[in-house]
Please model this.
Amino acid sequence: MKKEKQEEYDSLKLSSQLCFPLYACSKEIIRRYKPYLDDLDLTYTQYIAMMVMWEKKSMHVKDLGEQLYLDSGTLTPLLKKLEQKGYVTRTKSREDERALVISITEAGEKLKKDAVKIPAAMGACVRLEPEEAAFLYKILYKILGEI
Amino acid sequence: MKKEKQEEYDSLKLSSQLCFPLYACSKEIIRRYKPYLDDLDLTYTQYIAMMVMWEKKSMHVKDLGEQLYLDSGTLTPLLKKLEQKGYVTRTKSREDERALVISITEAGEKLKKDAVKIPAAMGACVRLEPEEAAFLYKILYKILGEI
DNA sequence: TAAAATTAAATTGCGTACAATCTAATCATA
DNA sequence: TATGATTAGATTGTACGCAATTTAATTTTA
Model:
């Protein structure tokens, strides 16, 4: 086989790709969260949604979706579940009846007290040097920024 | 609020976490693959499965699952779909009747010719310096290696 | 200002992910 | 060699993730 052809084919190896370790790593980290999140009866996606709510207290579904890079097809059922659990409320906006306002509840705020343990536990679980973590963070946001 | 308490709460911000950009980035890259994969009528997961098959030609579902970090719950329906499309065959192993052998077909091999364009197209799509890419690759496999 | 365009959520449908369970085959060993 | 343990896949059930479509509300503009 010609050398160029072989090189082309090599690029189709899983081990030549960046996308694959990124995809596998993302799933792996989420898997490592699971035991901690199970204690709070939250899935990973519900957890990142709650993280935004803990910070912002109240916001439109649209804005939440922009923060999380998720659309209404994912968020609508997820937020209904968080409402069932009593962590948020869902109410139509007065100013714009198209928009739905998500607000954190008392119980949702309470949950935060249990959740604060998680980042530390995860930090111990993923062993990276501080410089490695910082660089990884920077590169990932560089890729996301290209959107 | 006490300073330590605030720091604890800050760790619960989406912007303080590594997991979130990793998760968002993984989805974003897969999203960027979509137009190219649509041309081949493959999903991303089907594509990485085919990447292994292009390299190995034939293997057990179990080994494929180990390569891709996927279990039979994901692979069984996925491989049935690839079989329907005519890219692989699924046959019981002679030596061990529990095992299922996945083998690439003529049509599956043909598909590789169209797929070789994808890594180059994606490289142009995700703009990282070579050192950045190399570093990212190394760190991701470091995290995966901790499994 | 009435019609057209746009926008925000919800809905539908398909394809993962993965835990948990089940079934059948194989292995280990008492 | 019978039987208990292990293993490989398949199945079931829950929860995304996202494209495409729908519905209702708002904005634009002819």
